[in-house]
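During the reporting period, our protein records have gained a structure token line. A sample record is set out beneath this paragraph:
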Amino acid sequence: MQGWIEGFQESIDFIEQSLSEDPAIEDIAAKAALSPFYYQRMFGALCGMTVGEYIRARRMTLAAQELTVSGDKVIDVAVKYGYDSPDSFTKAFQRFHGITPSQAREPGAKLRSLAPLHIKITLEGGNMLDYRIVEKAPFTVIGIKKKFNTETSYQEVPKFWGEWMKDRKGLKGMFGICFDLNGGDFDYWIADLYLPWEDIPEGCEAHQIPGSLWAQFKCKGPLPEALQKVNTQIWSEWLPSLKGYELAGRYSIEVYMPPEEDPNNTVSYICVPLRKL
């Protein structure tokens, strides 16, 4: 566990050193020896915010400190922290602090501050997490997909499911699959297993999932709460203590079983690809 946490802390230290630059998510994730896709999932689970939200909050914290103690022009502080114009900087500053950069220089101005993160995992009682490691051959899915950004995906993906519910396009909705595109964006599929003897519904396409070892986590209870709870445990508890395996691929799969009459008995799964070290 110590190796994971040390690497993750190194990535946060790298962010802190690069706040006046424009650190690429690929470079940040590399410090933790993770792909950008998996890094951002782990960051969200451990830190309670996205990487972009953390960077913006730290930049606004430091910008406010500089405005209150230096005579630098607002435009100079804006450029230092990645803003091309005073207007865009002022809007971001107001969203974070509730006042303008000029007002921040007034005596007694109330400002917000986010201190640099320091990752520390403590064990507070045992949380049961049911999973098994299985090997599966390649399989093909069919479905519809939509591109999302990690910054807004928690709000936008449920809307995608809501749109699909109105016109299911011949799908049952067995899977929700994330395919990383560039570390910041990903394709999310609502999909079913492809059956060669059946026609692909109009508007759908096919994609093959490679054969792999999978960590398969069982979720039981009402959706999406049960699935979100297990997802948080995977990235904040299970992954840091993982030994003998490493994450493989740049995707993950949600598996949805038929709904139960009692929502508390509904079963779903989260599957994450692995390889042995």
